[in-house]
């Protein structure tokens, strides 16, 4: 399927989920993440969920990371340049929604992309080869290409993989894993 078709399909599927289903599925995803071989790493980048888009609720993942004393990194997006600036999430970090309802840090201690060990990647759909479909703005492809080559890229999805996304680009960054409520898909690891 084409990315455009997949975006439409999965936006509808997500909109049909109830708040209780999102909570239960997000908790199941957080439990599956515990099985990944990533826990010796230090810097974990987590997206803050856009409630209005019915994204995977990363609150559970934040609790896991905090409980394991990991350094948690969150980002602020610049829609003019398509750049993301990354900040350490601390007790003092103020979070504010931007004009697209994306919760973002107001400011804080900046962390370079090259320091990040693990990135949890938002997506709408993914395929069995590790390609993903996001919202189409290219923020994460740009960000992931700035990370060190060994950075572990983990997609989070309520739904199982598609067979194939047919219109991938060379610049699309592949996932290493994708976690769903039913398990973990392993790609290039």
Automatic annotation (TrEMBL):
Family of the protein in this entry: Belongs to the 5-formyltetrahydrofolate cyclo-ligase family.
Binding site for substrate: 50, 55
GO molecular function: 5-formyltetrahydrofolate cyclo-ligase activity; ATP binding; metal ion binding
Cofactor: Mg(2+)
Catalytic activity: (6S)-5-formyl-5,6,7,8-tetrahydrofolate + ATP = (6R)-5,10-methenyltetrahydrofolate + ADP + phosphate
Pfam families xref list: 5-FTHF_cyc-lig
UniProt keyword DNA repair present: no
Organism: Flavobacterium laiguense
Domain of life assignment: Bacteria
Listed InterPro entries: FTHF_cligase (IPR002698), FTHF_cligase-like_sf (IPR024185), NagB/RpiA_transferase-like (IPR037171)
Residues annotated for ATP binding in this entry: 3-7, 132-140
GO biological processes: folic acid-containing compound biosynthetic process; tetrahydrofolate interconversion
The name this protein goes by in its record: 5-formyltetrahydrofolate cyclo-ligase
E.C. number: 6.3.3.2
Keywords: ATP-binding, Ligase, Magnesium, Metal-binding, Nucleotide-binding
UniProt entry tagged with the keyword Ribosomal protein: no
């Amino acid at each position: 399927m084409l990315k455009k078709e997949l975006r439409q399909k999965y936006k509808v599927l997500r909109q049909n989920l109830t708040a209780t289903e999102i909570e239960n599925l997000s908790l199941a995803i957080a439990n599956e993440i515990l099985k990944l071989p990533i826990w010796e790493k230090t810097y974990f980048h987590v997206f803050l969920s856009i409630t209005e888009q019915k994204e995977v609720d990363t609150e559970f993942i934040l609790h896991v990371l905090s409980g394991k004393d990991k350094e948690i990194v969150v980002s602020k997006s610049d829609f003019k340049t398509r750049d993301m600036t990354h900040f350490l999430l601390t007790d003092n970090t103020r979070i504010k929604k931007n004009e697209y309802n994306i919760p973002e840090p107001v400011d804080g201690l900046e962390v370079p992309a090259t320091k990040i060990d693990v990135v949890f990647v938002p997506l709408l759909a993914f395929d069995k080869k590790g390609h993903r479909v996001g919202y189409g703005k290219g923020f994460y492809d740009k960000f992931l290409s700035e990370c060190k080559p060994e950075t572990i890229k983990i997609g989070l999805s309520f739904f199982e993989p598609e067979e194939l996304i047919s219109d991938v680009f060379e610049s699309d960054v592949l996932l290493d894993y994708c976690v769903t409520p039913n398990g973990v898909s392993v790609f290039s690891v």
